[in-house]
Specification:
This protein has 184 residues and is α/β, with parallel strands linked by helices. It has a single domain (7-143), classed as Rossmann fold, CATH 3.40.50.2020. Helix content is 24%, strand content 33%. The chain is built from four helices and nine strands. The chain has a six-stranded mixed β-sheet, sandwiched between helices. A three-stranded antiparallel β-sheet has the order 1-9-8. Mean pLDDT is 91; it is low at 178-183. It binds guanosine-5'-monophosphate. Residues 35, 38, 63, 70, 93-102, 125, 146-148, 152-154, 184 line the site of guanosine-5'-monophosphate.
Length: 184
């Protein structure tokens, strides 16, 4: 396991993003929509760093057949609990890889008439992008490696790590292949 982004660097960047979100929303109460389950640590830290009133909700999207490969066919398995018509919505994602999941979420939400729709992603794995999706707040760009930690898992492990680390092909082979039945 190779540490790619240290905990202190993540904290510093999340603080910057939180301040920017606040200054970009001088009026209204933005709604942060976390994409379960990888978003949880990013979401919690981000909330603590947005110094204006805001609300939260969560969705769950299934997109992977195997834990380290994208099937490219997202499906909403848990929808929002509130109406987003006229709201300033910010999707909070752990990582954008091919962009299929984000494109699907943007289309789904735009049909519901929000006043604005933005995206905050902790990690941008840009070399793998297949869909040209806009990301308003990016934590870090990372290379084409499978990463874990800070909420991201492999076969439900490693989410608790306070840093982001890349698994080697050997480590990926050694782990049991987790079949996705719920959220990514
Ligand atoms: P996309 O639709 O952009 O290909 O995939 C987005 C989802 O794939 C993310 O929300 C995340 O759950 C998962 N994903 C993509 N790359 C990685 C990775 O390197 N590590 C982990 N743990 N999940 C990833």
């Amino acid at each position: 396991m190779e540490v790619l982004i240290a905990s202190e660097d993540i904290q510093r960047r999340v603080c910057e993003i939180g301040k920017r979100i606040a200054s970009d929303h001088p009026v209204g109460i933005p709604l942060l929509v976390g994409v379960l389950r990888g978003c949880v640590i990013f979401m919690a830290d981000l909330m603590k760093n947005i110094p204006i009133p805001h609300e939260i909700d969560f969705i769950s999207v299934s997109s992977y057949e195997l834990s380290s490969q994208s099937s490219g066919k997202p499906r909403l398995v848990k929808d929002l609990g509130c109406d987003i018509k006229g709201r300033d919505v910010i999707i909070v994602e752990d990582i954008v890889d091919t962009g299929h999941t984000l494109e699907f979420m943007r289309q789904t939400f735009l049909e519901r008439g929000p006043r604005s729709l933005k995206v905050a992603a902790l990690l941008d794995k840009r070399p793998r992008r297949l869909r040209p999706v806009p990301i308003d707040y990016v934590g870090f760009e990372i290379p084409d490696r499978f990463v874990v930690g800070y909420g991201l898992d492999y076969a439900e492990r490693f989410r608790h790590l306070p840093y982001v680390a890349a698994l080697s092909p050997e480590e990926l082979d050694a782990e049991p292949a987790a079949r996705t039945v719920g959220a990514t």
